[in-house]
Amino acid sequence: MKTLHFHIGSHKTATTALQNALAANADLLATRGLLYPQAGRYFTGHHPLALALREPQRRGQSLETLEDWPALLDEIAASPAEQVLLSSENFEWLQDLSRLQGLTRHFKVRVIFYMRSPPGYLESFYNQLVKDLKTRESRPLESYICEHGLFFLDNERLLRRWSDAFGPQALQVRLYQRHCSPKTLLRQFLETLGGRNLPELIGPELIGSELIGPELAAPGSDRPGSDRPGSDRPGSDRPGSDRPGSDRPGLVLPQAPALQKISLPPDALEYLRLRNLHRAPAKGQHRITMTLAQIAQDHPEALHRTRAGLLSRAAQQNLIRRFAAGNLRVAKRYLGASRAPFDPDQVQGHTNFDQRLPQGDNAMISKVEALLSRFASTPLPPMHPADPAQPSRAHPDASPPERPAPFAPQQVR
Fold first, then answer.
1. How far, in Å, CA of 76 to CA of 32, rounded?
2. What is the pLDDT of residues 340-391, one digit of tens each?
């Protein structure tokens, strides 16, 4: 019986980077017994498969006739690979798993889930909501927290659905490390799949269990990665073909993240939020967002006068405590840990948080406008439909590249 792995997220845990690497190396992985199916993929993730299961009008439709699922099942049947991997963070929000339960008649089902610290997850998720053309979030982060249920931070509730459907033994939970290098991220993920001949594609100097759990690393909020010394030396990104004396093909590791995946710095995020608040025209918004991401990538030290999209240290600690009991039960059940994975006392506050402006002012807007004007002629990557793994399925503005007229700074109070 083949093993079918569902990589369900969570959101904001480098899922896109993993999906890009898996898709780029699908042929090589297939030779090692892991099928990353082409059927049901949109860009590099299996988002259409999950989204089809969320459509109310198709609730009674079986997988055998549901959109891309028949082609997927045929591809799996035709492949000699004993392991199959489906990856989409949209799977995590499925409420009804009854149709997926039927897969246990033909497959051994396993579920992979990465936990991220609540503050880091929320800040990253909010950043995306402000940027997204469909949601165009206009509330400050503090108001968003007060007015939103934050259901997506309740790991225990989310995992309970999958545990009830497939049994707790089917779930493999890991902690996400934000500063983890691409090769370490991919190696850990391949080790989680359990295949002995998969992690060695990353290179023998990187093999070894470094899966992070509460008993293996100091607790904290989005802790830096713990790569082994020497793992980042030149040539290690392309193991196999780049190692002297080896003729094995090497994995292609994820490149720099696409602009739409870059979190905006506070002032850039505040600029977009104010545009959303004052209902600035959506025309050209995608190019503005991508230009701000380019500025953030080229000048990471710029645009940090405000605290937009950031939580105070006290707010981070309270958010961790809010979900601590559930996360402790998750850690005990799936990580074999005796303590909660995120310790509020280990939280490091954002630099100069108290000295930052709580909201943007006219000077901030003028600075952002000046930078946008300076970068207006910078070529940007081709525009693609928005990642369906994000909160909306909106398509970016395909309007001409000229920048729209800015909203009036005097509107800001």
1. 15
2. 999 999 999 999 999 999 999 999 999 999 999 998 776 665 544 445 555 5
Is 137 in contact with 276 (CB distance < 8 Å)?
yes
**Alpha-carbon distance 325 to 157, whole Å?**
12
Q: For residue 17, how far is the Cα from the chain centroid? A: 8
Q: What is the DSSP letter of 235?
A: T
Gyration radius (Cα) of the chain, Å: 22
Helices 362-374, 285-298: inter-axial angle, 10-degree rounding: 90
Other Cβ atoms less than 10 A from the Cβ of 234: the count is 7
The full 3-state SS of 61-93, as one line of letters, equals: CCHHHCCCHHHHHHHHHHCCCCEEEEECHHHHH
Q: How confident is the model at residue 177, as a pLDDT? A: 86
- Tokens linked to 331: 């850690």
The structure tokens listed for 311 are: 């939580």
DSSP annotation of 210: -
Pairing outcome for strands 83-87 and 107-115: unpaired
Q: How far apart are CA 90 and CA 11, in angstroms?
A: 8
pLDDT above 80: residue 76: yes
Strand pairing category for 34-35 and 2-7 = unpaired
Q: List strands edge to edge, sheet with 83-87.
A: 34-35, 83-87, 2-7, 107-115, 171-175
Give 91-123 pLDDT, tens digit per residue. Answer: 999 999 999 999 999 999 999 999 999 999 999
